[in-house]
Amino acid sequence: MRQQLIQALVALLLIAAILLGVEFGVREGYLKAYEFPPASRIAQGFVELTTVGFPTGVTIWTHTFVTVMRILKGYVAAIVIAVPLGLLIGAVPVLDKMTAPLIVFFRSVATLSLLPLAIVWFGAGELTKVILIGYGCFWVMLSNVIAGVKYVDPALIRAARSFRVSGWTLYREVVLPAALPRMFAGARVALGVGFMVIVGAEMIGTIQGLGALIMEARSFYRSEITVIGMLVIGVLGFLISSGLAAFERLLLPWGGGSSEASR
Amino acid sequence: MSRTGPERASSAAGAAPMIDIRHVRKQFDVRGGGEALVLDDINLSIAANQFLSIVGRSGCGKTTLLNIIAGLDAASGGEVLIAGRRVVGPGQGQGMVFQQHALFPWLTALENVVFGARSLPLAKAEKIDRARELLQLVGLEASAGKYPREMSGGMQQRIAIARALALDPDILLMDEPFGALDELTRIEMQQELLRIWEARRKTVVFITHSIGEALTLSDRVILLAPHPGRVARDIAIDLPRPRSRTDRRFNEFYEQIWSGLSS
Amino acid sequence: MRSGSRMGDAMWGLAGILIVLAAWELATRLGAIDPTIFPGPIAAIRSAAQRLPASVFLDNMAWSLFRVVGGFILGAVAGTVIGFAAGWYRGFGYFARPLIELLRPIPPLAWIPLAIIWFGLGEPSKFFIVFLGAFFPIVTSAYHGITHVDPSLIRASRSFGLKGLGMLFHVGIPASAPDLATGLRIGWGLSFGVLVAAELIAADRGLGFMIMNERNSGGSVSVIIVGILLIGLLNLVTDAALAALIQRWIGRWHGA
């Protein structure tokens, strides 16, 4: 308790010191405002972003909404496909052996390296962005669902078999719940991947979305807007992953959560 | 090897044994070719309501033998009969308690016991009634709504015993059930198990590392020798219950078993 | 659950790969997909080889590798040192932790505009982005490792008179090596992905640039496809090499 208090105090003082230091440094001419936007400029920029918007007419809320919608579409699509497929592959050893090297390879392909190909196939519009997010989330989710099903504690399976529970009932009532924590961990990691991908995908071929905002702002020498965009992305990522963790506690009340996931 | 089976008053001498193990052999394929013989020609007759312990060093095949009786593993040769019927799988009157409780972490205490009754042709409400009765038997009716991780090790093992009794088995197979408990809890659980055994009249096959535990509980102790696993001694423990560890004959038995294990 | 023979597993895996390749090739031959925008594997490799000499591929690959290795080493060293220091020295932790926690939710790619403002369009900005990709997972795992050393190991070493730096180097760091190893693997994967993205957005060489340039200049889809496969393979091979190194380092006692 006392340690947390000290930690909070130090953190606040540290942040205040950095903000004041930049403010002072810019005012006295040691730092360029363009390279290190001071807090006062950032605050002004934020007001501008909420009212006028940047570029004019596109407020920060629009940017945020557009980005969130793109992530959600790709993310939900990825999970809706990956979960049943992973449950199937994890349950059929031959399928698992056949797909294992493919999945490792597709996961190794950097998602954004698919951007040029996706533009050729789907154009530079919305679909390309959603598909890229979907690709990144899909493989992470798929491998975690498979692992969740495959690495169920064998003792639990023996216990179930000793009560003559087998086949589909065994899968539904033992394997599935035992795999849930791992699946949730995968869903959390996949969301992080979605955030990674969207920022890159939005830097090309659009003026809407937080990734576009920070890139556009730089071209107009408005670095304070870039910083605001970065902060909003950070806060958004933090909020969504906390929301997912809360959802997980609600859904898995037995406390099987926060198991390790593989990326 | 003299068969000095202690016929309990309740089981008439000469009646068919509850468990009849005939020439059971088990070998595993070893990676890179070859086979490992784990059990070699095991023959045992276990009378109804007898409490039998199997003692042996790690790797002597105790757990494998238990799994074969449970119908969870198939023998490479020989057969096991339960009440005259050949064992082909679980659910022929065997109830199993595992080393690390193997309770389903996503089910409450009550739900775990209800799971044990899954394959019974009863209505849900009847299964719940039966589970409540069993929780009462193990003294945990107040913890019906708790998840396994919210319970102590001793409580978890009591739930596991209640779950194993859910199919009302004739035989209770116990694989080092108290091995992970501290000494005090362990002694309590031994008394508890004897009480349940008196109340429900089961045939028990109990695996343990502990000579003292085997002597406190059993009518009969089997020493299993390793490489390959085979019956080295078969000792009838004709001491009255409750047994005292300071009793002279208790200690003579202890010496006898110890010399059998170290020879 | 049962581990079959490794040979058998490899055969099944190979079968899976061949099935996918054959399906891809067949789909283009039968006209199910348009070979002008999605050529089959054989056609793609052949026409990519015709269009660009192997030296161009190798040159771009060398640049990508140089950047990712350089940035990764910077990030790994900084992440390890700061993570261990923040976990071992409480005072330093008070300062380092809030900064790390504050910056961590910001994806590395979101730093690209600032990286360009601070370091220009040249190599330093790429190193910086890769550095960020490696730094956060590694600093987190190093911190987690050093703050979760089994207390009985600490007490045991204290009973033998170890303290201060001696304890850090002889007990703290070895005990947290498995955690650090996990962080290094994640950091490497992230560094790679981040670099490719950075090369797509702002670069004049490297594999990411090569495929993006090919599409912007209306070049060949084959080059893009081969480039993507190359990026995937490079990541796969280097990750396996890193895993083998880690195995040699801690495999004997950690058994991972």
Question: Which descriptors apply to this entry?
Answer:
heterotrimer, A: 263 residues, 78% helix, 0% strand, globular, B: alpha/beta, six-stranded mixed beta sheet, four-stranded antiparallel beta sheet, 32% helix, disordered N terminus
Into which percentage range does the β-strand content of chain C fall? under 5%
Oligomer: heterotrimer
Secondary structure: number of strands of chain A: 0
Largest sheet of chain A: none
* CATH class category label of chain C: Mainly Alpha
CATH topology (level 3) name of the largest domain in chain A: MetI-like fold
> What shape does the CA trace of chain A take?
globular
In CATH's first tier, which class of the largest domain in chain A applies? Mainly Alpha
**The biggest beta sheet of chain C, please?**
none
Q: How large, in whole angstroms, is the Cα Rg of chain C?
A: 23 Å
For the terminal residues of chain A, how far apart are their CA atoms?
34 Å
Distance between the termini of chain C: 17 Å
Order of helices and strands of chain A: HHHHHHHHHH
Percent of residues in β-strands of chain A: under 5%
Q: What is the number of helical segments of chain C per DSSP (H or I, 4+ residues)? A: 10
How many structural domains are formed by the residues of chain A?
Answer: 2
Percent range for helical residues of chain A? over 70%
**If you average the pLDDT of chain A, what whole number results?**
90
| CATH architectural label of the largest domain in chain A | Orthogonal Bundle
Please report the total strand number of chain C as a whole number.
Answer: 0
Please, could you describe this protein's structure?
The complex is a heterotrimer of chains A (263), B (263) and C (256). With 263 residues, chain A is mainly alpha-helical. Chain A has two domains: 1-31; 41-251, MetI-like fold, CATH 1.10.3720.10. Chain A has ten helices and no strands. Chain A has helices at residues 2-27, 39-51, 60-91, 93-108, 115-122, 126-150, 154-162, 167-202, 210-219, 223-251. In chain A, helix 3 runs antiparallel to helix 4 (93-108) and helix 8 (167-202) packs antiparallel against helix 10. Chain B is of the alpha/beta class and 263 residues long. Helices cover 32% and strands 25% of the residues of chain B. Chain B starts with 18 loop residues before the first strand and ends with a helix. Chain C has 256 residues and is mainly alpha-helical. Chain C has a single domain (41-254), classed as MetI-like (MetI-like fold, Orthogonal Bundle). In chain C, 81% of the residues lie in helices and 0% in strands. In chain C, helix 2 packs across helix 10 (221-254) and helix 3 (54-88) crosses helix 9. The model of chain C has no long low-confidence stretch (mean pLDDT 90).
